[in-house]
């Protein structure tokens, strides 16, 4: 397993631990996970190819689905309410 996939597994483990944490930690942790996950996604794609990059993108989007939904709503002009 390459270093980028190992770090991606650690990212997923941290995301799982954050999901078990108190709710007040979820949104700040989601921003931190996204901040770390975007460069990680580029590293995975560079090191392992587009198939693994798309697979990591799908996994990250499934973990961070609510921030992604709110971002898409805000981009369409519907607001986050």
Automatic annotation (TrEMBL):
What is the top-level taxon of the source organism? Bacteria
Mention any Pfam family matching this sequence: DUF2484
Per the UniProt record, which residue ranges are transmembrane? 50-72
Does the record's keyword annotation contain Membrane?
A: yes
Q: Which UniProt keywords apply?
A: Membrane, Transmembrane, Transmembrane helix
Report what the protein is called: DUF2484 family protein
């Amino acid at each position: 397993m390459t270093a980028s996939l190992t770090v991606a597994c650690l990212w997923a483990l941290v995301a799982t631990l954050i999901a078990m944490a108190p709710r007040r930690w979820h949104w700040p942790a989601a921003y931190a996970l996204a901040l770390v996950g975007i460069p990680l996604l580029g590293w995975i794609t560079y090191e392992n190819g587009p198939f693994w990059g798309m697979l990591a993108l799908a996994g990250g989007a499934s973990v961070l689905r609510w921030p992604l939904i709110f971002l898409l709503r805000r981009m369409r002009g519907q607001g986050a309410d």
